[in-house]
Amino acid sequence: MNPDRIEELIQQGMPSASVEVSGGEGKFVAEVVSEEFSGLTLIKRHKMVYACVNDEIASGVLHALTIIAKTPQEQNN
Predict the structure, then answer these.
(1) Is the Cβ–Cβ distance between 5 and 41 less than 8 Å?
(2) Which domains are present in the chain?
(3) Is the pLDDT of residue 77 over 80?
């Protein structure tokens, strides 16, 4: 598993999001910016992102994913 593949998976599940993933060796950080997060709690935002990579987590290919989930407005503050 590499950062590009994780970005691709999140992008497929959240096409309107801006996604940047860094890390390696099964441990990654995903910065996801999307209007879809507006009005949602942090937990609901994380669930949206985890849903995109759930199969990889369940299979053990992806061991840890730290998520930074913001709206465009939050990113610009």
Answers:
(1) no
(2) 3-75 (3.30.300.90)
(3) no
